[in-house]
TrEMBL record:
UniProt organism field: Lophium mytilinum
Highest taxon, organism lineage: Eukaryota
SUPFAM superfamilies: Ubiquitin-like
Family matches, as CDD domains: Ubl_NEDD8
Gene3D superfamilies listed in its UniProt record: Phosphatidylinositol 3-kinase Catalytic Subunit, Chain A, domain 1
Name used for this protein in its record: Ubiquitin-domain-containing protein
InterPro entries on file: Nedd8-like, Ubiquitin-like_dom, Ubiquitin-like_domsf, Ubiquitin_CS, Ubiquitin_dom, Ubiquitin_ubiquitin-like
Length: 96
């Protein structure tokens, strides 16, 4: 199935994955396409951080799903992502 990973800049990375892929494998696929090491990635789905040891199926990911890839901000000393809600409003998310 094909999913998208959206970066903080709005860039969308398209990935072909299988339901049995662990999140750690999805991060490896992001590294293959974008060169971002898995240790520097966090993936967000449904507003929650995904655990490396869980599978796409455990998160009920389906084709067309969009994951969000926060960016580390050294000034804030934390992870930052902007999510666009169903209401069309952008909501910031930060974890220090």
């Amino acid at each position: 199935m094909q999913i998208k990973v959206r970066t903080l800049t709005g860039k969308e990375i398209e990935l072909d994955i299988e339901p049995d892929y662990k999140v750690s494998r999805i991060k490896e696929r992001v590294e293959e396409k974008e060169g971002i090491p898995p240790a520097q990635q966090r993936l967000i789905f449904g507003g929650k951080q995904m655990a490396d040891d869980k599978t796409a199926a455990e998160y009920n990911l389906e084709g067309g799903a969009t994951l969000h890839l926060p960016q580390w901000d050294p000034v804030l000393d934390g992870w930052v992502v902007v999510l666009k809600g169903a209401d069309g409003v952008c909501h910031g998310w930060f974890e220090g």
